[in-house]
Design brief:
By secondary structure, the chain is an alpha+beta fold. The chain contains 3 helices and 5 strands. The protein is globular and about 35 Å long.
Length: 117
């Protein structure tokens, strides 16, 4: 079911290239999409960034982190916490519609929460 959620996310977000569902250690649980990029390595690295951002946000009293956008020359990356220490990372082309991508990511996060509970 997790693989289907990831495939649905890619289909719902025009311009999405790949997605990966990660555990607390940044290890891949499931992935979908373009396999020419090393999403396992990038996922582990971005999971570390997300942990730091969540810690800083908490210490500053800014509330919970819903998602983080990394905007790069080659495209964008959206990462969102799922439940506990799980997270979902979505790789997008530079021309992807971010509003659609965020909406699709939020829907996938909710489905994953139900799946892992």
């Amino acid at each position: 079911m997790i693989n289907q959620i990831l495939e649905d996310l890619l289909a719902a977000a025009p311009g999405a290239k790949a997605t990966i569902f990660l555990d607390t250690d940044g290890e891949s649980i499931a992935q979908a999409g373009d396999t020419t990029i090393d999403i396992k390595l990038l996922g582990a690295w971005k999971e570390i960034h997300l942990d730091h951002i969540k810690d800083i946000s908490g210490r500053l009293g800014m509330g919970d982190v819903d998602a983080v956008l990394f905007s790069l020359d080659e495209g964008n990356e959206l990462i969102a916490p799922v439940a506990g220490e799980y997270c979902l990372l979505l790789f997008l082309s530079a021309y992807a519609d971010l509003r659609q991508a965020i909406a699709a990511l939020k829907q996938a996060v909710e489905r994953l929460k139900k799946e892992i509970e």
